[in-house]
Design brief:
Number of strands: 0
Helix content: 55-70%
Oligomer: single chain
Largest sheet: none
Number of helices: 10
Order of helices and strands: HHHHHHHHHH
Length: about 220
């Protein structure tokens, strides 16, 4: 009886191990797929807004749902193009759509946070595009600084409305203090998040201190 139980448990262990390894492989392949799409985008000769937008939507959909997390190889490639205003705009639009959907799990939130961090705030002085579009005139109007900044702001505002895991909550507070609140079009939208975080006790109150100070000084709270 003991021998048969040991055989069953051993079989279940190997089954679990196989499922775990298989899951890691599948999720690694998903990130590789996203990276492949990103490489294809860079090497393409696309001049059509819809094709560029569709490709980026597919990349974002894959990345935010990858259980293996956002890979360093993906971020390395993305960081070489994230300063282009069209790339920035299309990634922000796709992320906003994903973030504004129903409640998300912890891995989705972490992946979205890592991707959001990699997208720099719109630059009023540099409006360089990665691609040459047939709809150049209308796109320059669509991607004007104020419009892209508003989408950037919406992404972060809607992100912090989620119930964040404690470690991510703390990391987010520290990030928005330095990189988000100084540039968004309406810092007051973050008031509830910052004040409620400050009321949660240590370490969140310590992490929220800088953001709270920023809101007090810049918004006359």
């Amino acid at each position: 009886l003991l021998f048969s139980c040991a055989v069953v448990y051993k079989a279940r262990f190997f089954e679990f191990e196989f499922c775990l390894v298989n899951s890691v492989v599948i999720n690694s392949l998903k990130m590789e797929k996203a990276l492949h799409k990103l490489h294809n985008l860079l090497n393409s000769q696309l001049h059509d807004k819809r094709n560029v937008s569709r490709t980026i939507v597919n990349v974002v959909n894959t990345v935010v749902r990858c259980k293996a997390g956002v890979s360093e190889s993906f971020l390395s490639v993305f960081n070489t193009i994230s300063h282009y205003e069209d790339v920035k705009y299309f990634f922000l639009v796709a992320l906003r759509t994903e973030i504004m959907k129903s409640e998300h799990n912890a891995k989705f939130l972490k992946n979205s946070f890592d991707l959001l961090k990699a997208i720099p705030a719109p630059n009023v002085e540099s409006r360089e595009l990665l691609f040459s579009y047939e709809e150049a005139a209308s796109l320059h109007n669509e991607m004007r600084y104020s419009g892209t900044l508003h989408i950037f702001s919406q992404c972060w505002v809607n992100f912090v409305r989620n119930k964040l895991p404690p470690s991510l909550h703390c990391e987010c507070l520290l990030w928005i203090d330095k990189h988000v609140l100084p540039v968004v079009d309406c810092p007051l939208y973050f008031t509830d998040f910052v004040i409620s975080s400050f009321a949660m006790g240590f370490p969140l109150n310590a992490a929220a201190l800088g953001s709270l100070k920023h809101l007090i000084l810049s918004c006359n709270m």
